[in-house]
Write a structure and sequence with these properties.
It comes from Ancylostoma ceylanicum. The chain has 220 residues and is mostly helical. It has eight helices and no strands.
């Protein structure tokens, strides 16, 4: 009876955590509509820690609770376990998407600032250097807090960055031969540094864009 009471308490805990009651707050609600001063408390590091906590619950605590419920003969133990697992998994994916969205916005702001009004001499443009540094900082944060998410998150953010950059560059023709040359330099540098995080479709797009610039230079 004591074990059953303990299991019941744990079930109530997960009921509150997973919002199985309508009068309790949903875990998917990240309170993104809060005031600006309250939003500042939501950091990417906290998101990564929350994701790790959820993964621990999914892989360890939830399975242990399910086993105890089953051993005590709790009715519908399998159904409770599957529903709890589904809700936790969905919430984890929500947090991962939120993290990727925040990091992608950082890349987007750098790409939006990309222009060729000032062209360096035999060097990569400043915006390209900042994009690479942004990737390094994100990788360092992931390796420190959630190394298992490094590949997934970097692939998503870098992929979005390349797509946005190519869309922006293709929207305007190079104003001069020097600008076209600088674009080739920047694209090659970014591809060499970050190409490992892009898929085949994006790499093909990058190669086609670079080939088009080289062809323009050959014709001049």
């Amino acid at each position: 009876m004591k074990n059953c009471s303990f299991i019941y308490d744990e079930i109530l805990l997960f009921v509150r955590l997973l919002n199985l009651r309508a009068d309790l707050k949903k875990p998917q609600d990240l309170d993104l509509n809060r005031k600006d001063d309250e939003k500042s408390h939501l950091t990417t590091k906290k998101l990564l820690i929350s994701i790790c906590n959820l993964e621990f619950i999914l892989e360890n605590a939830l399975k242990n609770i399910h086993k105890r419920m089953f051993d005590c003969g709790v009715k519908y133990a399998d159904e409770v376990y599957e529903k709890a697992k589904a809700k936790l998994s969905l919430y984890r994916q929500t947090l991962v998407r939120c993290y990727i969205m925040i990091k992608s916005s950082a890349f987007s702001s750098l790409i939006d600032s990309a222009n060729y009004e000032y062209i360096p001499d035999d060097d990569v443009s400043d915006y390209a250097k900042e994009v690479m540094m942004c990737c390094v900082l994100q990788q360092a944060e992931l390796e420190l807090c959630s190394p298992q998410l490094t590949s997934e998150c970097l692939q998503a953010t870098v992929q979005n960055a390349f797509v946005n950059l190519l869309d922006q560059l293709e929207a305007r023709e190079p104003a001069s031969e020097r600008e076209a040359t600088q674009r080739v330099i920047d694209i090659c540098a970014l591809e060499q540094a970050l190409g490992g995080f892009t898929n085949l479709e994006t790499r093909t797009h990058v190669n086609a864009f670079r080939a088009g610039l080289v062809e323009q230079l050959d014709q001049r």
